[in-house]
Fold:
Amino acid sequence: MNNQTPNWGKLDNTAHLFPVISTKKTSNVFRESVSLYEEVIATLLQEAVEKTLQSFPGFAVHLKRGLFWYYLEENPKPFPIVAEEDDYPCRLIDYKKNNEYLFSVSYYKDRINLETFHALADGVGAKVFLKALIYNYLNLSHDEINEIPFDQDISLEREDGFQQCYTPGKISKSNYSTLNALHINGRKLFNNGLSVIEGSLSVKEIKSLAKSLNVSINVLLVATYAYAIYLTKYGNKKPIVISVPVDLRFFFNSSTTKNFFSMANANFIPTKDDYSFEEVVEIVKNSLIAQITKENFRKTISYNVSNEQGSIVKGIPLVIKNIGIKYTYAKAAKASTTTMSNLGVMKFKEPYNEYVNKFSAMLPMSIGQNIKAAIASHGDLLSIIFTSSMRNSKIQKEFFRILSHKSIKIRIVTNGENNVSL
Structure:
């Protein structure tokens, strides 16, 4: 009989939020996918997941509820059988069926899907795990490949970046927006359905357009999103606020696979009915530049961690903490219209890279946000996926129409919940 106590670890500062606010409608489960040039072999994918978990013990955990905080503990159960995708993406993970793992793996034809509960990792951390999974899978499915190149992009680090950057004793003030932002509402899809609309385009083409406007690709796409919302909600002068997750690893020299991100808000407050696209691009650019600084992020980290570390907060039972967390989150949600997250570029070493076609991502719904967008790219193929719980798709249509009118060629596919044509 094994009487050893399982290894356990604390949740990172941001992760404390997600077990409290997650529901069937707001799962906090995001998806990242890699599409290959060949159909996936289920048995080999199963073996690849198990091999990858051996290298990533920080992912082989389950969530436990303590007296004062949730925490992560080593999961002794085997990883469940990998199955073909048969439901909407970004569903709340059934932890009983999933053997209590905080992520799931599925496949559909040539696509491998990794769905991750946000308490385990952020998009960058999950991306690292997915990259290692693809290396392992291709190594198993191709005899000519006999070595897995775990390069510097694959980190096994599970430090809490927030705690590493926190300076005890520093006076902290909230750095969060208090704007009462526009919320996008409409008739919902049946059975908690999720509309998925993906636009695929050339990185070179969108980069050229961004360069002509003197902005980054990310700023261009966030501004296009804001402008699309403005054009479809022109009668409403409430602030359009697009939350943009920012990876903090670059700013604080971290390689952790835990959550380590902060939000910047692209604020566009319409005061007239005839803004040009170029005007909105400039407004969004200036809004983000003012916020995306190391000093701003340090202030946010200091504020968040100081709240967690306070002696009074530490001693409050979890059931009481949860009430406060839910209230604070619901209040903060009023300051955001939607989210657009850029997961960046997925790169593989040769010869692995030649087997990979596309990298893409999807976001779940959250309180007050019935539509979101995720950006991801591999090679010259950039994917923009809108997920929405609404039946109406006029914002997505307007977004792609704006880019199309700027001579960007776009290929659009949907999951059939609603359609978009340019």
Residues 8-149 form a domain with the Chloramphenicol Acetyltransferase fold (CATH 3.30.559.10). The CA atoms of residues 69 and 318 lie 6 Å apart. The radius of gyration is 21 Å. The chain has a mean pLDDT of 92.
